[in-house]
Amino acid sequence: MISVVIPIHNEEQNLPILAGKLTAALGTIGREYEVLFINDGSTDGTADRIHEVCRSDLRFKAIHFRRNSGQTAAMQAGFTHARGNVIVAMDGDLQNDPADIGKLLAKIDEGFDLVSGWRKDRQDHPIKRNFLSRVANGLISRTTGVHLHDYGCSLKAYRREVLEGIALYGEMHRFIPVYAYWNGARIAEVPVLHHARVHGVSKYGLERVIKVVLDLGVVLFLHRYAQKPIYVFGLCGLFSWSISSLSALTAVLYKVLGGKSFIQTPLPLIAVTMFFTGAICLLLGLLAELSIRTYHESQNKPTYLVASRDNLEGPDRRATDREKGA
């Protein structure tokens, strides 16, 4: 089965058109399918349009949030409730074309675990959207080692097992390919159509760039240091102690060789401040180590991923034959 997950926020005019295009496109793939609309706290008539579509075709389903929770939360809800072995995510503003779903599924059938759409001819503002998007995509590709042209394209297809164990927060949905690649997934990218927005207003602004940069920092930290946080806190602590020692030594040299009293320079204050800063960093690192061990042991979460087994049954006997990792 194919599950199509679509976050929706104030798309009253677009939704009936989108439903018609989805029915036409999915009807040609020759597979059982479902469409999940995630109404992310819409304040217009979107909920009524969704009710109408779902009544006319039981393959269309919906989840309605009490308030706007953001695209990432909407996608997480859709992934959680989807029943398909392959999950396709896309936007509900008609800028993604449902006709491209077949392209993504064809790549999945070739053996890829995740297929990302690439809006090669993007129909958006050249500076506010296109240029900043290229900068963000280049930054993410260089820092993560996962080279995609268009992280921001919502039109993606996932094998269900790729999404298992991935919990999304904030604006993290764009980093799913990164998480998947680090967990051993095979990733492909295909060019897809992109249409200019006709109805409604874009929900994206310049502040999204700042969010991407901050979220990227979180992703890199969790990937590199989630298992050993003491490496980060300990390094900061040792650096602080180095500054403390250098400041103290310099203050003593000024006193002995230069005849300057300790109270004539800020060096003693710097030495004391950095010493205690270093001690706090190391203590925080030890607390983080205790926390990560409690996290794994209390929830019985292994620190590894199993791809397959031969002549051996593991504790996790689901059809995917995989174990959740950290």
Care to describe what's here?
There is one protein chain. This protein is of the alpha/beta class and about 325 residues long. The chain folds into two domains: about 1-225, Spore Coat Polysaccharide Biosynthesis Protein SpsA, Chain A (Alpha-Beta Complex), CATH 3.90.550; about 230-300. The protein has ten helices and seven strands. It has helices at about 15-25, 45-55, 70-80, 100-110, 125-145, 160-165, 175-180, 205-225, 230-260, 265-300, and strands spanning about 1-10, 35-40, 60-65, 85-90, 115-120, 155-160, 185-190. Helix 2 links the parallel strand 2 and strand 3 (about 60-65). Helix 5 (about 125-145) packs parallel to helix 8 (about 205-225) and helix 9 runs antiparallel to helix 10. Mean pLDDT is about 85; it is low at about 315-325.
Question: What topology does this entry show?
Answer:
Layout: E1 2-8, H1 14-26, E2 33-39, H2 46-56, E3 60-64, H3 71-81, E4 86-89, H4 101-109, E5 114-118, H5 126-144, E6 156-159, H6 160-163, H7 176-182, E7 187-191, H8 207-225, H9 230-258, H10 267-298
Parallel strand pairs: 1-2, 1-4, 2-3, 5-7
Antiparallel strand pairs: 4-6, 5-6
Helix pairs in contact: 5-8, 9-10
Give a summary of the structure in a few sentences.
The protein is of the alpha/beta class. The protein has helices at 14-26, 46-56, 71-81, 101-109, 126-144, 160-163, 176-182, 207-225, 230-258, 267-298, and strands spanning 2-8, 33-39, 60-64, 86-89, 114-118, 156-159, 187-191. The protein contains ten helices and seven strands.
